[in-house]
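Lab notebook, bench 4. The sequencing result for the construct came back, and we need a structural model before the next group meeting so we can plan mutations. Quick request posted to the team channel:

Model the 3D structure of this chain.
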Amino acid sequence: MKKISYSILTALFAFQLLAISACNKEDKPSTETTAENTESSLEQEAKMLKNQKGESIKVVYFAEGDEVAVKITINGKEHKLNARGSNNKGEPIFTDDTYAWEIMESGTSGRLTDKAGNIETYKPEGEQ
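Done. Here's the predicted structure in token form:
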């Protein structure tokens, strides 16, 4: 795996990792409940972000094996982007064949770049 800002990735999954490590093998809930808890602990809550034009996207960070990935929903179409290193500021970059997503320093915002090189910054609605 290329260099990724582990501090940002750690922050994204700190809560999930603590929840998983806090589970005690002797206190295991039923198999059905365990499967549901494992599934939800690997995916963060969806975040709705907007750009300056008022366009919205949905961003969901999740674990895929040992790595972090992101699902971005744009215009009703979901794109799964995989970790591909980091930018010159050390911020993680996720890509697929269509888009690149860079997490910004705050961890709540990001930059989306399309194939044509168009860049849009997306932030939580209150930060516009």
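The first strand starts at residue 47 and ends at 50.
Will bring this to the meeting.
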